[in-house]
């Protein structure tokens, strides 16, 4: 879970998004952002709440970490957060390792490329 300024969350009809990367993203109007890993084989036949304590694979953790860093980059650059902008930033960040994304050069590069893609898509 992340906290960003609420003014950066783009107002949309839905705030629950399943991204192409397989992760689930919830953009709350209050500024809270929830990222969850890809959940497969969910058994809903029992009803009620069951806690899944299984380990999350490293690939899913890397996806969630990359999404988190992309959201922090967009928030640092005061760009609106939507499913589209987060997806674009995620795709543009693929040339960097996850731990390199919070370096200033990488942040500027990812934010500029994301801004250009958003401008072209409008």
Automatic annotation (TrEMBL):
SUPFAM superfamilies tied to this protein: Eukaryotic type KH-domain (KH-domain type I)
Domain of life: Eukaryota
GO MF terms held by the record: exonuclease activity; RNA binding
Record Pfam families: KH_6
Domain K Homology: 1-39
Keywords from the UniProt entry: Exonuclease, Hydrolase, Nuclease
Gene Ontology annotations of biological process type: regulation of gene expression
Protein name: Exosome complex exonuclease RRP4
């Amino acid at each position: 879970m992340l906290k960003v300024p609420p003014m950066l969350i783009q107002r949309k009809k839905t705030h629950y998004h399943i991204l192409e990367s397989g992760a689930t993203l919830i953009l709350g109007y209050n500024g809270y952002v929830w990222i969850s890993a890809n959940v497969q084989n969910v058994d809903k036949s029992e009803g009620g709440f069951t806690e899944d304590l299984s380990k999350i694979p490293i690939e899913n953790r890397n996806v969630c970490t990359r999404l988190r860093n992309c959201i922090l980059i967009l928030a640092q650059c005061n760009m609106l957060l939507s499913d589209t902008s987060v997806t674009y930033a995620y795709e543009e960040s693929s040339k960097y390792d996850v731990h390199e994304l919070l370096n200033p050069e990488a942040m500027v590069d990812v934010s500029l490329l994301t801004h250009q893609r958003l401008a072209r898509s409008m």
